[in-house]
Task: structure prediction
Amino acid sequence: MAVEARNKKVEQDKAWETSWTRRLSIAVFTYAVIVMYLFVINNDSPFINGAVPATGFLLSTLVLRGVRDVWQK
Result:
């Protein structure tokens, strides 16, 4: 029983690591923090400029999946 419970937890952790929910949560949090920082430093376009790192994160998650597949081979 303990092994089955552990395996289920490992499967759930793996599913979380690759989920779009996790990726979008990180992107939204990143966007919010960057926008607040840009407001503090009086940036002219905090909402547009805040989208750059969040979008970069999402794009990197797409590209890194391919890199990982090549590395595993």
